[in-house]
Amino acid sequence: MAHPTVAVLERHLHLYRRLWRASVFSSFILPVLFLISIGIGVGGYVGQIQGVDYLAWIVPGVMASTAFQMAIGESTYSVLGDFKWVRAYHAMRATPVEVHDMVAGWMLYILFRVEIAAVVFLGVTGLFGALHSPWAALTPLIAALVAVAAAAPVTAFAASIEHDSYFALLFRFVMIPSTLFAGVFFPVDQLPEPVRLLAYLSPLWHGVELSRAATLGVAPPWPAALHVGCLALFAVAGLAWAMTAFRKRLQD
After folding, report:
1. Could you tell me which residue ranges the ABC transmembrane type-2 domain spans (predicted)?
2. If DSSP codes are grouped into helix, strand and coil, which group holds residue 53?
3. What secondary structure does DSSP assign to 59-104, as a single string?
4. Cβ(113)–Cβ(74) under 8 Å?
């Protein structure tokens, strides 16, 4: 018998094998189209930012935001559905699978999804000449850290609610503002200071700055260890919350 965590991962992969075609556009094609339209199209008018062409400047932001949005999107309806409608997690609990196996298996699935998209995107952007440093090879690892930092607390949130209407609030007031104001499209130092402080609280900003430092071969605005520490804090706190939420939900 496979390890319980691996068994949970296999279950999610088996479902994805039947549904993967529905995710091809959003996971692979849309980020590349976005890169071409904004990075090259708008970039022709913007010119350079911080001494580099706009395409090279926006590439790491698009990669990090893709990981961020994928992690949040996958961790909403799928998690709530497996509790409320499918009751898959209740079925797992009747087996040797423990709560930490459920959470760990789900996070591994998220990483699987994000890493494939990140590697494909990295290869495409390399063809455009948008990678200026060999440190760009680290960006899939950064995307993985961003994914866990976003997916863990959202998974916990999805396991704690009873109605999917809350997800509209999550998308509107967390995911979209983070994408717009976390340094993906323009430097956050152009924002008013109160809004800039909110950007610093987003795990996406830390991922964007680490990715940009890697692809451009420059130092991030904060020490790299501090950016990594902030992302790790989101991930660890989110995982702890997720396991607590799963245990409470499975008692119902």
Report:
1. 22-249
2. strand
3. HHHHHHHHHHHHHHHHTSHHHHHHHHTS-HHHHHHTTT--HHHHHH
4. yes
Q: What's the whole-number mean pLDDT along residues 126-138?
A: 89
Provide the residue range defining the domain that includes 57. 4-250
- Does pLDDT of 21 surpass 90? no
Q: Rounded to an integer, what distance in angstroms lies between the CA atom of residue 57 and that of residue 52?
A: 6
Average pLDDT value over all residues in the chain: 90
206 with 227: CB under 8 angstroms? yes
Instruction: Measure the CA angle with vertex 136, ends 131 and 140; round to 5°.
Output: 125
d(CA 236, CA 141): 17
Q: What is the domain count for the chain? A: 1
For residue 164, the SS3 value is coil
State pLDDT tens for residues 30-63: 777 777 777 777 767 777 788 888 888 998 999 9
Phi, psi of 237, rounded to the nearest 5 degrees? -65, -40
Q: What pLDDT score does 247 carry? A: 96
Whether the Cβ atoms of residue 33 and residue 125 lie closer than 8 Å to each other: no
> What distances in angstroms separate CA 50 from CA 35, 179, 186, 197, 219, one per listed residue?
19, 20, 10, 21, 13
Q: Is 93 exposed, middle or buried (0-12, 13-18, 19+ CB in 10 A)?
A: middle
- Complete DSSP assignment for 221-238: SS-HHHHHHHHHHHHHHH
The span from the first CA to the last CA of the chain, in angstroms, equals 28
Token look-up 């976005």 returns 34
Residue 12 identity (one-letter amino acid): H
φ, ψ of residue 201 to 5 degrees: the values are -80, -5
